[in-house]
Amino acid sequence: MTRHPSAAPGDFEPEFVDGLRAIFEEKIVFNQVLGLKITALQPDGVVGRIAMRRDLIGHYGHNRLHGGVVSAGLDAMGGLAVMAAIGARHMDEAPAQRLHRFAKLGTIDLRIDYLRPAIGEHFELQAQVLRLGSRVASTRMEFLGPDGKLLSTGAGAYIVS
């Protein structure tokens, strides 16, 4: 899955992209705490970034990103991928109307596999929707180091109705 969606969100209207960015980066306070930023937003996948900060290091130190930060970041990106897929499915609706569809989105299952310690100055998170049903969406996520090396993977299920 280590493909990179285009950084230019050409498939969505600017109003939808700006609204989704505001929801994700500003209104979801925990994403603000993590410093999670959207770097690419496409109907078939999303990319985000977290910069290493001292307050995100695990309680054992060693300049490793805390596993909870990795898990929360992957969960958030899985949710963002679902939001993008829902937005793409309903392109016949106005952007503001599509943004209201995310009110009931929630994680119902999450699995994270930690493959390597998260050490670096910044990290890239990628997510894509494997299946978007009428009630449940399934996602796959990746957490990459600054060199592009795969550090963790995730799979999530999200309620969408």
Automatic annotation (TrEMBL):
Residues 63-150 form the Thioesterase domain. Its EC number is 3.1.2.20. It catalyses: a medium-chain fatty acyl-CoA + H2O = a medium-chain fatty acid + CoA + H(+); a long-chain fatty acyl-CoA + H2O = a long-chain fatty acid + CoA + H(+); a fatty acyl-CoA + H2O = a fatty acid + CoA + H(+). It is an enzyme of class 3 (hydrolase). The keyword Hydrolase applies. Keywords: Hydrolase. One of its GO terms (molecular function) is fatty acyl-CoA hydrolase activity. Belongs to the YigI thioesterase family. This is Medium/long-chain acyl-CoA thioesterase YigI. It comes from Ramlibacter tataouinensis (strain ATCC BAA-407 / DSM 14655 / LMG 21543 / TTB310).
